[in-house]
């Protein structure tokens, strides 16, 4: 594999301190700076924003997301519109 990613958690480790997009069950999406994670993919994100229809719905700040609610995690895009 490329980018020094040999295992799935390596991708998360490389994403620490960077913005990620997290899609949850129930069709919720959040963008925030990944601070920490564990083997259950529980995440701690800072400056988190809830996204709806490609736009920022609300700011939540420092947040914990449970790993069993996550469908996917991806590098964030900068194309989000401000409120």
What would your notes on this structure say?
- The chain contains one helix and five strands.
- The chain is mainly beta and 83 residues long.
- The protein has one domain: Roll (SH3 type barrels), CATH 2.30.30.100.
- The protein has a five-stranded antiparallel beta sheet, with no helix packed on it.
- A hairpin with a 5-residue loop joins strand 2 and strand 3.
Distance between the termini: 39 Å
- Count every helix, treating DSSP H or I runs of 4 or more residues as helices: 1
Provide the succession of SSEs: HEEEEE
Q: Order the strands across the largest sheet as they lie in space.
A: 4-3-2-1-5
Largest sheet, in brief, is: 5 strands, antiparallel
- Percentage beta strand: over 45%
- Unreliable stretches covering 5 or more consecutive residues: none
CATH architecture designation: Roll
């Amino acid at each position: 594999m490329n980018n020094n990613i040999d295992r799935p958690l390596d991708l998360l480790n490389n994403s620490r301190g960077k913005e990620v997009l997290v899609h949850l069950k129930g069709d919720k999406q959040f963008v925030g700076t990944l601070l920490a994670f564990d083997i259950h993919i529980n995440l701690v994100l800072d400056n988190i924003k809830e996204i709806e229809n490609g736009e920022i719905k609300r700011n939540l700040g420092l947040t914990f997301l449970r790993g069993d609610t996550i469908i996917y995690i991806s590098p964030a895009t900068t194309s989000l519109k401000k409120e």
